[in-house]
Amino acid sequence: MNRTTTSPAAPTVREQLLEQAQMFLMTRGYNGFSYRDLAERVGVKTSSIHYYFPAKEDLVLEAIKAYDALIGEGLAGIAEALPPAQKLALYARGFGRIVADGHRICLCGMLAADIETLPETVREAVQRFFAYHEAWLARVLAQGVADRSLTLSSSPEVSARALFAGFQGSVLASRLFRAPSRLEEVVASVCRVG
């Protein structure tokens, strides 16, 4: 019996560059790495990077796009029919995967810290990321208020901004203290509400 097995295709140079750029962005921020660092990590010449991404702004925009798509897949996997507290717990679990090793933080959270030095297009992409997540959380919180499973001290929109800030802050603190439990504490505080 002849079986043909196909192994997954090796990542392309472009994919490797994006993956490593994301890692640099999540650990060092926008200003913490250069094309030379990226070239050494991937094993290519800097001219190869410029072929795919003429400017660092282009690279970072594509890294945000890929990161956002990955996070979006996770959100799409949270069933609409689930109770709000369960949706929040699943959201937080996905957020927790970011800091699984205790060294990384949310790519867009790290970029937000660099906001004054970012090109305008990158700044706008980071703002869209934040706005999307705050809106998603606001919808879940509003659902919890409507079905009386959650009680909020302010509007769902304001509470969502506070919650997202809590998630972002918890990954910073998790990295600072090498304690992923910081995120779990934020989730627990939210899921006890109601």
Order of helices and strands: HHHHHHHHH
In round numbers, the mean pLDDT is 88
CATH architecture of one domain: Orthogonal Bundle
Portion in strands: under 5%
By CATH, the superfamily of one domain comes out as Tetracycline Repressor, domain 2
Low-pLDDT runs of 5+ residues are none
Helix content: 55-70%
Q: Please, how many helices?
A: 9
Shape: elongated
Helix/strand structural class? mainly alpha
Estimated radius of gyration: 19 Å
Mind describing the biggest β-sheet? none
The CATH topology of one domain is given as Tetracycline Repressor, domain 2
CATH class of one domain: Mainly Alpha
* Span between termini: 60 Å
Number of strand segments: 0
Q: Could you please describe the fold and organization of this structure?
A:
By secondary structure, the chain is mainly α. It has a domain at 59-191: Orthogonal Bundle (Tetracycline Repressor, domain 2), CATH 1.10.357. It is built from 9 helices and no strands. It has helices at 13-27, 35-42, 46-52, 56-76, 84-98, 107-113, 120-146, 156-177, 181-191. α1 crosses α6 (107-113). The longest helix is centred in the C-terminal third of the chain and has 27 residues, at 120-146. The chain is elongated, with a radius of gyration of 19 Å. The model has no long low-confidence stretch (mean pLDDT 88).
What is this entry, summarized?
By secondary structure, the protein is mainly alpha-helical.
